[in-house]
Amino acid sequence: METVDRKDLSTEKHNLNSLDFDNKSISEILHIINQEDRTIADKVAGAIDAISQTVELTTNAIRSGNKIYYIGAGTSGRLGVLDASEMPPTFSVPSDWFNGIIAGGDEALRNSIEGAEDKPEMAIKDLKEYSLESGDVLIGISTSGAAKYVQSAINYAKSINAEVITGSTRMKAGTATKMVLNMISTTTMVQLGKVYGNLMVDLMTVNDKLKDRGVRIIKEVTGVSDDVAESKLFEAGNSVKTAMVMIQKSSSKDDALIMLEQADGILRRVLK
Description:
The chain is of the alpha/beta class. The chain folds into two domains: 11-191, Glucose-6-phosphate isomerase like protein, domain 1 (Rossmann fold, 3-Layer(aba) Sandwich); 208-271, Helicase, Ruva Protein, domain 3 (Orthogonal Bundle), CATH 1.10.8.1080. The chain is 53% helix and 8% strand. It has eleven helices and four strands. It has helices at residues 26-45, 48-63, 74-91, 120-129, 148-159, 173-191, 208-222, 226-235, 240-248, 253-262, 267-271, and strands spanning 68-72, 98-102, 137-142, 163-168. Strands 2-1-3-4 form a four-stranded parallel β-sheet, with helices on both faces. Helix 7 (208-222) crosses helix 8 (226-235).
């Protein structure tokens, strides 16, 4: 496992723009933070090629029946768990497509678990409990790249021929991590047909808010009335995408599902 001299880590170095932080007014402090945050998008833009390659890996993995795993310690781990947890309700996908693993387990989501990131053996144990296998994609998240827990996870994943992506940010860590993970997961969902235009057409209307959103999406794309949109949504078993195909193709629910299956779930291929 790589040995890192912590004094050389980017996270341990002084930010020259905030050296006099404690001598600033509230407004000045906020402006400095805001100005520093402005640099994050440019840093992320410089990583677009690498992020694009990651999305290709994650998309192909899911299409092949494999899974995606985020793994990290502390804030990095929490951000991975957060992004993974947003996938099922946002895109109506299985809860195990994206998995967030944090050093110290679920308790570490709310509390700091002393020394969790320094226990490399626990990373292997955690990945085995999630049944990481060849073909899965492991995205290791570490602000500095020094977390032994993450290093161990990466080495284990390589040993079983899982795809490995390392996510040492070396920028404004938390914000950058959230941006990049959201880019990876959302773009993967787009590639898998969960979005039409910029509409999340694969949502399942499991509550009043989502039902209202689903009806509005159906109306926007198909041009039908509120009543027709709501009726077809009910007939489609609360699947917005299925309801839209039923309307546009004047088909039954079963036929709509067949058309979507033949189009790999990509609505645009059906509606064209």
